[in-house]
Amino acid sequence: MTAPEPPLALLAELTHRCPLQCPYCSNPLELVQRSGELTTDDWRRVIDQAADMGVLQIHFSGGEPTARPDLPDLVRHAADAGLYSNLITSGVLLNRDRLATLDAAGLDHVQLSIQDSETETAERIGGYKGGHRRKLEVAGLVRAAGLPLTVNAVVHRQNLDRLEAMIDLAVALDAARLEVAHVQYYGWALKNRAAFMPTLEQIERATETVDAARARLAGVLVIDYVVPDYYARRPKACMGGWGRRFLNVSPAGKVLPCHAAESLPELDFDSVLDRPLDEIWRQSAAFERFRGTAWMPEPCRSCDQREVDWGGCRCQALALTGDAGNTDPACALSPLHGQVFELARTESASAPPAFVYRRYGNA
Ligand code: SF4
Ligand code: FES
To answer: What is the mean pLDDT of residues 308-336?
Structure first.
């Protein structure tokens, strides 16, 4: 196999600790404890190795990355290494001083999550009292610091009917971009799937709402829209293809092709504590397993979309078919597609079960 191009971006999952408990979190059910996290020096080395291998962007994520007191140090290290840095945060641990420190350290961009436009539902979903009001304040502080802001809104059956209000909120918060992402069912979200699965009618209304808002807000707000897999006709090109554009480093230092890859039991993932990042990217068995098209079964193998969607998502194929090497059943060409569509319809037609909140020991 020819050597892969360097990845575009590194997702640095600094910690699994988080004050919120969103049941749609894609983190694994077995959360890494604080004592198992990489040290500041480990992360500095990872950042240097990423820059050396040609990575252009670093996304500081988690869990909640601001739970790590060394975040400004890591942001500065990334800036010194020439990386564009993005902070993906719930915002609730930020204040004016911490933002000023991050800004001075060279942070380039902030992505702030909201759970809803309404306080009560937002705080019920996030499992954190006072969180929604705090987020609105922090959005103001981000903009006052002159940092560009993207709002992330994860949508599902329990908040989709307020999508228009969430779009209006993003405009009011002076965001340049809004990511409207239907829940992707990995980790905790897979455990809570029935609580989140929207109806087909909700999806159709949401698509109309996004289309209308895009036309109305051209030049004001860019809206990215991640469609829900279970009702799709074709799968998403998950991570832009396995081992093609992105790599993740977990809080414990495992190097993963995607945030949910540890759910694939057949694969062993190398650690930045044992091997250099570049070597893992180019040579590790886990990255090679689903890279390119040679691994594909039919119908992907002879499909003209195979270098467009790269066969969809391996973690979803595992979750829904029991084999990560199958065609993602989000694809209508998969023999299992009809079953997935029916599963979505059945789950969305029943009353939503109670959330299993994402917290240590709750798996
Ligand atoms: Fe994509 Fe495979 Fe479906 Fe073709 S058959 S559209 S490559 S998932
Ligand atoms: Fe793992 Fe899609 S989330 S390949």
So the answer is: 96
Ligand 2: distance of its center to the CA of 234 in Å? 15
> Percentage of the chain surpassing pLDDT 70?
99
- Report the pLDDT averaged over residues 185-202: 96
**Strand boundaries in the chain, DSSP class E:** 9-13, 57-61, 84-89, 109-114, 149-155, 177-182, 222-226, 246-249, 255-256
Do 134 and 95 contact (CB within 8 A), yes or no? no
* Whether 86 contacts 59, CB under 8 Å: yes
- For residue 80, how far is its CA from the centre of ligand 2 (angstroms)? 31
SS3 state at 52: helix
Instruction: List residues near ligand 1 (CB under 6 A).
Output: 234-235, 299-300, 303, 305-306, 309, 311-312, 327-328, 331, 333
Ligand 2 centroid from CA 261, angstroms: 6
Residue 344, phi-psi category: left (phi > 0), alpha (psi -120 to 50), beta (remainder): alpha
Q: Whose CA is nearest to atom 1 of ligand 2?
A: 315
Q: Which ligand ends up closest to the CA of 239?
A: 2
Q: Which residues line ligand 2 (CB under 6 A)?
A: 186, 238-239, 242, 258, 260-261, 313-315
Q: Indicate if the pLDDT at residue 214 is higher than 70.
A: yes
pLDDT band at residue 363 under the 50/70/90 scheme = confident
Q: Which two tokens stand for residue 184?
A: 């992707």
Distance between CA 224 and CA 240 in Å, rounded?
Answer: 16
- The average confidence (pLDDT) of the chain is 96
Rounded Cα distance between 171 and 240, Å, is 29
Is the separation of the CB atoms in 55 and 8 below 8 Å?
A: yes
Residue nearest to atom 5 of ligand 1 (CA): 300
Residue 1: its pLDDT value, please? 55
Give the number of whichever ligand sits closest to the CA of residue 289: 2
- The sheet carrying 109-114 orders its strands as 222-226, 177-182, 149-155, 109-114, 84-89, 57-61, 9-13, 246-249, 255-256
